[in-house]
TrEMBL record:
Span(s) of short sequence motif 'HIGH' region: 39-48
Subunit-level organization: Homodimer.
GO biological process, one term: tyrosyl-tRNA aminoacylation
Record: residues binding ATP: 231
Catalytic reaction(s) noted: tRNA(Tyr) + L-tyrosine + ATP = L-tyrosyl-tRNA(Tyr) + AMP + diphosphate + H(+)
NCBIfam families xrefs: tyrS (TIGR00234)
GO MF term (any one): RNA binding
Native organism taxonomy: Bacteria, Bacillati, Bacillota, Clostridia, Lachnospirales
Gene name per UniProt: tyrS
Keywords on record: Aminoacyl-tRNA synthetase, ATP-binding, Cytoplasm, Ligase, Nucleotide-binding, Protein biosynthesis, RNA-binding
Main location: cytoplasm
UniProt family annotation: Belongs to the class-I aminoacyl-tRNA synthetase family. TyrS type 1 subfamily.
Full protein name: Tyrosine--tRNA ligase
Enzyme Commission number(s) of this protein: 6.1.1.1
Domain Tyrosine--tRNA ligase SYY-like C-terminal: 339-405
Amino acid sequence: MGVYEELQARGLLAQLTDADRIRDMINAGKATFYIGFDPTADSLHVGHFMALCLMKRLQMAGNKPIALLGGGTGMVGDPSGRTDSRPMMTPEVIQHNCDCFQKQMSRFIEFGEGKARIVNNADWLLDLNYVNLLREVGTCFSVNEMLRAECYKQRWEKGLTFFEFNYMIMQAYDFYQLYQRFGCQMEFGGDDQWSNMLAGRELIRRKLGRDDSEAMTITLLTNSEGKKMGKTAKGAVWLDPDKTSPYDFYQYWRNVGDADVIKCMKLLTFIPLEQIDEYAKKEGQELNAVKEVLAYELTKMVHGEEEAKHAQEGARKLFAAGGADTEHLEAVKLDPASFRDSKIDLIGALVAAKLVTNRSEGRRAIEQGGVMVDEEKVTDVHAVLDDEKLKKDGIVLRRGKKKFAKVAL
């Protein structure tokens, strides 16, 4: 099985152009491709992790990845998949985020001469003369076609600024520049990027001539699962251990839904497909062991083997002891000043610990008997936590059978 066929078997390909050329180039290890990462935060998250795994798979097969940091596009913000405008970041924040991304990427991708590249689109976007850009690039785009793009349609009700409207042109120009500078033939990205990616392909063909044989090999692949994995009801799952601890990262994957465990294993791990097919035969309680494998493998990839072992042992002790052994849990720090009358009420602590998304949900969970404080069921929605315990050892909250959190002052 070639690497292209493996990508198909793992469910990593959604939409693509020039399928035969893609297959031949990837399987021969002759593709130079890029994936863009806009620095909207100071850490990559799980959605980015899928892209990094894809880059690693292709690099292992001899292909050359380009990780494109959006130091320039980050100045505008991608409207794709959003119902409102992104907050505008300062150049200093954008650069800091780019530096954080680069450090994290280096743990997964091998960069260096003849290997992968890290490139920042600020190198060509920030020095552009806008009038020259309109003359040289703007003439290649039809406003009618741009307005039909799904990423813009989603914003009609709340409004789309002209500022954001330029994002498609900027991303297209990235592809053109990477093709010219590094011979990049492919762009990978999520399904929400499809219109932007097609725009880049078309720009190259228009600028270089429709009959240019090399330009005609430009190919695109997309996948829609990354952003779905990137967020949970609690918010983003980060790769930075200071934002999502190794234990919480492990628990996220340990608690993935039964219907998703095999899909996640195919998309994100390097476990052979034959072995995954065997795991797929498991049902009921046997799936818990498969989830442990998934959680361990991904935690090891992101945080190292020692942290993965520690997280796995801690999780097993927690469940085996019915939640009594909680030494490994990192405490969520509570600020009394943020609570009413400086009294830390149980509902507020549940929200702070992200065991519920809001106070209404917390109230319902308590009323339904689904909340325990240090393994004692609490049904009083007005309950407050013991200050002395919070100061000394912390208090363990549990919602249902699987969701635990320690809180402390």
